[in-house]
Amino acid sequence: MYLNRVLSGMRPTGSLHLGHYHGALKNWVKLQSEHECFFFVADWHALTTSYDDPSIIEKSTWDMVIDWLAAGVDPSQSTLFIQSRVPEHAELHLLLSMITPLSWLERVPTYKDQIEKLAHKDLGTYGFLGYPLMQSADILIYRALYVPVGEDQIPHIEITREVARRFNHMYGREAGFEDKACAAIKKMGNKKGRLYQELRTRYLQEGDDEALEAARALLADAQNISHGDRERLFGYLENKGKVILVEPQALLTEASRMPGLDGQKMSKSYGNGIFLREEPDSVSRKIRGMPTDPARVRRTDPGNPEKCPVWQLHQVYTDRDTHEWAEAGCKSAGIGCLECKQPLIDAVLEEQKPMFERAQRYLDDPTLVKAIVADGCERARRIAQDTMRDVREAMGLGY
Ligand code: TRP
Ligand code: SF4
What we know:
Layout: E1 6-10, H1 18-32, E2 37-41, H2 43-50, H3 55-71, E3 78-82, H4 88-97, H5 102-106, H6 109-117, H7 126-129, H8 131-140, E4 146-149, H9 154-171, H10 177-187, H11 190-206, H12 209-221, H13 227-237, E5 249-252, H14 280-288, H15 309-317, H16 320-331, H17 337-364, H18 366-394
Parallel strand pairs: 1-2, 2-3, 4-5
The structure holds tryptophan and iron/sulfur cluster.
The site of tryptophan has 13 residues, from strand 1, helix 8 and strand 4.
C-alpha cells in the first residue's frame, strides 16, 4: 500500500528550456535511480488553457518526451506515459468531483491568478476550475507517495491530500470494519491488545500524541497479525477506516530559480530562454548578446557583477575560481564582458552535449519514442485499473 512511488507531470508547452532542466528534469533523473518513477505528459491539463487552439499539443508532446529522454530520463528505469492514454484518470477525476466542495477549488490561489494573468483567454470554464482536481486524480490513481514539483504547485498537492483524506473518511469503512479491527486486537495477545486499547483511548480522548506514537510503534513490532490487520489497526487508531487513497507529499525541487538571458526567471513566455537542444551557434550568439551591467559602457569602465544577469548565470554554471576571476576582472575592468561570458558559453555547451547525443537516436527513429510511450502507457494503465477497482468498490460501484 505505502510504496515510495514518485509521480510527476508536465504540460506539453513546446520545446523545453534549461530552466526546465535545472528546475525539474535534473531532479527526475536523480529520483529514477532511487524510486519507482512515473512521469507523464499532462495533455488534458494543457487543454484547459489551450482549448481554443489544440493544434500545438501533439507536436509539443513528442518534442517534450524527446527532451526528457535527452535530459537523461531513462525508460528502463522510469515509466513515461501520456495522461489521455490512461482514461482511468478521467474516471477518477469524475468520481472525486462528487465529493469535492466547490469552495476548495475556488480558493486555490493559482485559479484566480491564472485567470487574471491570461486575461486574453476565457478561463471561466468548468474544466479550468477542475484543473487541481484533475491533478489530484493523476496523483492518487498511482498511490504515489512523492510528487516532485516547484513551489507554485504546492497548493495542488495540498488539495490532493485533503481530497484523499475526505475520500478515505467517507468510503474507507469496509463492512464490519470495527469487528475486524477488534478481532485483530485480540490476535495481538492479551497484554499487547490491552495496551493498544489504552493508548488508542488516550489518543482519541485526550489528543495525546505520544500515545499515538507509542501505539504505532507497538503495531509496527507486533508479530502475530497479518498485513491487512496491521493496516486496519493503523486506521482504527485514529478512528479512520482503511486507507484506499494515499496522501502524497510534495518533494519541493530546491528553489533553483534559473535566471533567463535578461535576469528575469527563465520562461517561455518572456522569450528569455535557451532551449535544451538549442544549436551551439545560437547559444553562443544569445549569451554574447546578453545585457550586462549598464555602467560598463566602454571596456575600460569597471562594473558591478551584482547588477549583471551574466553573473547570475555564472552562479548556476561555473565554479568558484571562475567566479573570483570574473568578479575581480569586472570590478577592475581587467576583463571585458565577452571574455567574462566565454566560460559560461563553454559550460552551457558542455552540459548540452550529452543531451544532443542522447536525442539523436530518437530523432533518427521516432518509432522508438512511440514504443517507449506505448509501453509506459500500458504499465501505468495496469496500476490505474487496480486502483479504480478499489475506488469503484468503495463507492458502491463494484458490480
Ligand atoms: N500542474 C502541473 C504543472 O503545471 C502539471 C501536472 C499535472 C502535474 N498533473 C500533475 C504535476 C501531477 C505533478 C503531478 O506543472
Ligand atoms: Fe557582467 Fe561579467 Fe561584464 Fe561584469 S564583466 S558586467 S559580470 S558580463
